[in-house]
Amino acid sequence: MPDGQPQSSALSRMTASPIEFEHPAEPGLVSVVIPTFNRARILRRAIDSALAQSYERIEVIVVDDGSTDETPGVLRDLGPRVRAIRQTNAGPAVARNTAIAHARGELVAFLDSDDTWFAWKIEAQVHALGCFPEAGLAWTDMIAVDDFGNVRSHRYLREMYGAYRLIDFPALMRQTSAVANTHENLADSSRLVPIRVGDLSVAILYGNLLHTPTVLMRRSWIGLSGGFDPSYRHGGEDYEFYSRVCALGPVALIDAAAVRYRVGASDQLTASEKLVHLAYNDLRTVSARMADPQRRRAMPAADLRRRLAECHAWVGSAELDHGRRWFAIKHLLASLCYRPRFDRRALRLTRSLVPDRIVNALRARGRPKGSANS
């Protein structure tokens, strides 16, 4: 399969050091990267879904990020197609980079240890990248499932990432072919779904559009981009990574759900107590990308101000929810400066200016006599 070459002008703007691979790229081989931490109970499901792909040229690299449960036992004797690496706990960005450095495949796919794939996913994506050698990655949609396997959403990517509501995909990414043209073994539900190819270098500044377990990409593009930023330890490393990668050239979307994404679990980064880290890292990523004059000029000024207002509002609200009022005030004020409106941000700013003792007293006065404290 021809390896797409990133745009040279974009490469000059990459700041991370290239990843040093331990093995030469093996044409046609897909390396599946699975970072894991304390998920022994469900890890095997993710591994099995990777091994069950209709595309057979697959190796699986699992990085145990310092688990303290039974994960080492789960990773014993899984056969020659699975390699296990153990490291001191350092977060998902470092774990993924560790696996990437050991990858032998020309292509790399990412799978989180609590998610699973439909059997046709990799085959369809390999086909897409084979048809469009200029594209550096291909991604899909996903369904959301709970711990009991109940489907909560059939098109969850568009619910999870609000930026989808701001992007006109038919205008941005041309439709080129359909998943039905890839192979007769593909699931019937995936037939006649379009493959779209286009440039997301500006669109991704409106917010993340790619979720890591949906992505298959060329190893060369990962290396040239520098991989995942280890300093994003508490979340948001995926958005920061794709905001750099999408500057390298076109990407492809297979507009069908090919991933079962686990939702509602307390060990996920989307748990409420971890959202403050995601909010700060979102602001950090957008600020870093806006430092590139070319990308900054490509975004309408009103959209730029709105995006920065959203970033600061998210940080401010998260800080207020965690009781850090002065940080909340700082970011809510910044948000209103970028986009003056009397809306929920102004209400939250007002709340942050009122001492907690007064808020609690007003709440107490509003309760019926004899009601339980809340």
Could you explain how this protein is built, in words?
The N and C termini lie far apart (61 Å). The protein is of the alpha/beta class and 374 residues long. The chain is 39% helix and 19% strand. The chain has helices at residues 8-11, 40-51, 71-74, 92-102, 121-131, 156-160, 169-172, 219-225, 237-245, 275-290, 293-298, 301-321, 325-338, 344-353, 356-366, and strands at residues 26-36, 58-65, 82-87, 105-110, 116-117, 137-145, 151-153, 173-178, 194-198, 215-218, 251-262. It is globular. Strands 1, 2, 3, 4, 5, 6, 7, 8, 9, 10 and 11 form an 11-stranded mixed beta sheet that branches. It has 2 domains: 8-266, Spore Coat Polysaccharide Biosynthesis Protein SpsA, Chain A (Alpha-Beta Complex); 273-361, Alpha Horseshoe (Serine Threonine Protein Phosphatase 5, Tetratricopeptide repeat), CATH 1.25.40.
